[in-house]
Amino acid sequence: MNYLRLRRAVLAVLFVLLPGVAGLMKVMGQGSVPEGAINGMYSIAEGQQVYFSQGNLQYIGSAGNGDENNTGAYWKFAEHQWDYLGYNGQGSDSKTVDRDLFGWGTSGYNHGANCYQPWSISSTYSDYYAYGNSGYNLFDQSGQADWGYNAISNGGNQENSGWRTLTRDEWDYVFNTRTMVNGGPRYTVGRRVEGVLGVIVYPDNYTGSAVSSDLTAEGWAEYEAAGCVFLPAAGYRDGTSVNFVGSGGYYWSASYYNSDYAYDAGFGGSSLHTDNDSGRCYGQSVRLVRPAQNCFFTINATPNPAEGGAVSGSGAY
């Protein structure tokens, strides 16, 4: 897997040294937020953090010319976290329909599944075997069964740049295990943002209270700036039928459950389940993440004359 390529970041460092101590110091800092990501950091396992994408993944089929590979179509993240496409023709297998509900592993890469294109709507579970094998996860083999392998137009527009789908265990860690600053909330189910029902997820360093009422776009802006994620209830597709739009959300994981099903994180009303599993043929939402890496920054530090004085410096990593 390719991890986040850190861009050069400007780090401000403030330390306290003993009197007379000077020289090189190696300190830890955070790389810049990748294009297309929300700036909050979320632990997915001990010592591992990610950024969530700015919105659900969308395939813009209407930009294609309808040929075998629908040349000209592209992938993008929704402009707003609450956006979803809903009942817009996603129940058809038309290549030129925009869609955000996908069968498991339908990344568009011919990785070995019978159904690998984003417009695939077959109801046969075995058509969606990652790499042609019922026992493979999306992240196995080449990784091309994962939607994140694609170049995403507003997510850096580079193939295999580090975007990926969370595993079942990682979804569970985000919602049920990670340690929050001051013991704050991890998530809130059943809130509306700009009229859309969904789940609000709080970043690791969130120090505020749980959202207790519905929010307008203006009200949500404050939470998004703090790194909060909103997962809209975009429904799901079963064959040609799109269901529960606006009342239920089902987000694929990269982990298979058995020969017919794969894991997802699902919610509706006031309940949320990270051990949910759905038929691989179901069309469901995809919310990608990208690894966040700490970098080490070497500075040439000189203490202030006063005992215990502040130390400032600059350098490069």
Sum up the overall morphology in one term.
Answer: globular
Q: What is the total number of structural domains?
A: 2
Radius of gyration: 21 Å
* H/E series: EEEEEEHEEHEEEEEEEEEE
Which structural class best describes the helix and strand composition?
mainly beta
Largest sheet: 5 strands, antiparallel
- Low-confidence spans: pLDDT under 50, at least 5 residues? 1-20, 24-28
Give the helix tally.
Answer: 2
Overall residue-averaged pLDDT value? 88
In whole angstroms, the N-to-C terminal distance is 23 Å
Helicity level, as a percent range? under 10%
Tell me the strand percentage band.
Answer: 25-35%
**How many DSSP E strands?**
18
Q: Which descriptors would you attach to this protein?
A:
mainly beta; 5-stranded antiparallel β-sheet; globular; disordered N terminus
Tell me about this structure.
This protein has 317 residues and is mainly beta. The protein has two domains: 1-29 and 294-317, no CATH class; 42-292, no CATH class. The protein contains two helices and 18 strands. The protein has helices at residues 168-176, 217-225, and strands at residues 15-16, 23-30, 42-45, 48-52, 57-60, 74-77, 187-193, 196-201, 229-232, 236-238, 241-243, 248-256, 261-268, 271-279, 289-292, 294-303, 310-312, 315-316. The strands form six sheets. Strands 1, 2, 16, 17 and 18 form a five-stranded antiparallel beta sheet that branches. A three-stranded antiparallel beta sheet has the order 3-4-15. β3 (42-45) and β4 form a beta hairpin. The protein is globular, with a radius of gyration of 21 Å. Residues 1-20 and 24-28 have low confidence and may be disordered.
